[in-house]
Please model this.
Amino acid sequence: MCGISGFLSLDKKDRTKQLEAINDALRHRGPDAGGIWVSGDGCVGLGHRRLSIIDLSPTGRQPMVSHTGRFIIVFNGEIYNFIELKEELKKLGHVFKGTSDTEVVLASFEQWGVLQSLEKFNGMFAVALWDQSQASLYLFRDRLGVKPLYYRWHNSTLYFSSELSKPFANVGTKEIDREALALYCRYNYVPAPKTIYKGIFKLMPGIAAMATKDSAAKACWARCDPYWDTQGEIDTILSQRDDTMGMEQAVSLLDEQMGRSIKQHMISDVPLGAFLSGGVDSSLVVAYMQKASRVPVRTFTIGFKEGFCDESNHAREIARYLGTQHTELIVTEKDALDTIPKIPSMYGEPFADSSQIPTFLVSQLTRQNITVALSGDGGDELFSGYKSYARLSSVQNRLSFIPPSVFALAVKPLKWRWFAGRVSKILGDQHYEWAFNALRLFARQKESRIAPGTHAAFSTPERMVLGVAPGTSLKPFYRCKGNIVEQKMVDDLMLYLPDDILTKVDRASMAVSLEVRAPFTDDYEILKTAWKIPFRLKNHKGAGKVVLKQALGKMVPREFFERPKMGFAVPLTTWVDGPLRGWVHDSLDLARIKQEGYLNPVVIKELLDAGGKSEWYAYKIWGACIFVNWLRDFHHN
Model:
């Protein structure tokens, strides 16, 4: 796991010091080594920070040059099938100096070309590749967007970086994008390709973008090729899916792929372990790890004093049964307060999934003992695990007799602001949000561009942000050919998973130089397997992840995990009106909010008056606090 950075320009201005500053800002992503490469004419620069995982010797250092000298690469991530690819390349005559997957990646490009190689790679990655023979710079991310990559055009130059650090943001002007801020106020994160800043973008997952010196001067890509389409791939699988498949066959199919995947994910030249929350996904990953290991696997969990969100005792039971070497930490209010000041620089832009706190703390705990950890992230999106899916399935069953055209008709008046305002007052803001988005979801045949609302933080975020038009925060809904719940699962795979869950884990773990590998998200063969399994074997009468539970039940007693889903959350409602109360009111000082001119003081006062009376309002308050602290601690410094 590493950090990458660089530039491409038509002019020959010396940007070495600028690149060094951007690269040094990524030191936490790669504390073991750093290096830069600048072309002879000064038009191209590549930077790399290394967290040594595979091939700890100098032969694994980057920037790395291919055997023929054609390609220079900086690579962040892991290719899990690199050993198989290496054997294939050896048969074709390639000779390798070291044992790193980066060298295999370069040889693949030499042998098969860029796009064909990307289709062969199974893993998580963000890569910059300079092709000297074609004078072209390629940037690409993995299929689901596990690894981040930011870019911007400035003064006829393309700049890129693994993170939106201060040196990277300071390359050009830092103008806050109010439309992006409205998106943040709805989702508590800024969805790709936008960032909080105008002119700075996130490269989309599954994309191979190519720039030349001339295209950089014009601030555009010479080519932008999708090598993977999640929605299209799933539609293809659904059209061929065998819906007569039984549970035994599904478990066997899953077992084969999980066994293969976990073995590949455990390849490491440094100490390795796993996050263990006590839930189904992480428990299944750990069970397969222990099955493949000759020694006890290291497992790590954190808990809370507040019992309603504490799963540490469940994790302890599973660890004891599987025989892992287990470590746990109970999080206190002081731990949260100590973490909050680190959040602005950790994420580089406003990001307010409050589980960022326990994610950082468990990463910090884990890094004291190991360098690589496996996690169960992505299991909910692939196997219908969220509570929202159960609610959606229940509503679908109850309303199945109503044609979509009726929902389409019902949703139209809610687009009228005066009508929506009255309905919102009657239902209350929280229930209005759910009703509005549910109506738009079920109106699928009449309205394709609908906004997912299950994970939204504000029902009317444009009230929160000054100077944005109504509807600014509504994003298109990514559909598949499946049922309503499967459509929501696909949308989450393409929006919520990369821009919230994976962003949270990447920044929190890399802040302490810990590599996190997640088989459910960074192994596309697992994704394909999940969608080959019929929906009824994942979700039965509102109970999700049925097939995962069947597989786990073969290795762990069912009483250890057969319980309601809790999620990896902090007791935010309690904290907002308790230990965080002083911080909240200092952050949301109305006079200062008015002076800054981004958030509406009237809405802020409404939030403060509501306080932590419900989890929903607590999360709205948290999002507003995170933004203003980012504004003051990161943007203005």
The domain at 231-384+497-560 is CATH 3.40.50.620 (Rossmann fold). Confidence is low (pLDDT under 50) at residues 445-456. The two ends are 28 Å apart (CA to CA). The chain has four domains: 2-228, 231-384+497-560, 387-491, 572-635.
